[in-house]
C-alpha cells in the first residue's frame, strides 16, 4: 500500500497546522510547484505541513479524556459514509474536538506548538 493511504490529505493536514499542531511527524506534505508531494525529509526550502500517520494521530487521540469518545460516534454519523481513510477520520476527529473546546490544557501543552497551560501562567 502507498503511504498516502496512511496519512490525511494535504488540505486536512494544512488545517491541523493552522490550528497549531506541532509540526513533528514522520512524513510531510511538501509543495514542489505545482503539486504537493509526500516526503520523509523536511526542507525549509519549500512550503510544507506535517502528514501525521494513523499511529501518530492515534497517540494524540489517546491523550483525550474518555468522556469525549461518544462524540466520535456522532462525528462518524455526521461524516456520512465511511469512505474516508482511518487517518482522515482521526485527523477530522482531532479538529472537531479542538473546534468544540474538548481538548484539555494538558493535551494542548503536549500537541499544540507554543501552548502554555493557563495554570502555569
What does the model show?
It is a single chain. The protein is an alpha+beta fold. It has one domain (3-111). Helix content is 40%, strand content 12%.
List the helices and strands and how they pair.
Layout: H1 10-18, E1 27-32, E2 35-39, E3 48-51, H2 54-62, H3 70-79, H4 86-99, H5 105-111
Antiparallel strand pairs: 1-2, 1-3
- Morphology call: globular
- Outline the low-pLDDT stretches: none
Counted beta strands: 3
Helical run tally: 5
Task: Sketch the major β-sheet.
Answer: 3 strands, antiparallel
Radius of gyration: 15 Å
> Which strand order spans the largest sheet, edge to edge or round the barrel?
2-1-3
> Mean of residue pLDDT?
84
Q: For the terminal residues, how far apart are their CA atoms? A: 46 Å
Beta-strand percentage? 5-15%
Order of helices and strands: HEEEHHHH
Helical content stands at 40-55%
Number of domains: 1
| Classification by helices and strands | alpha+beta
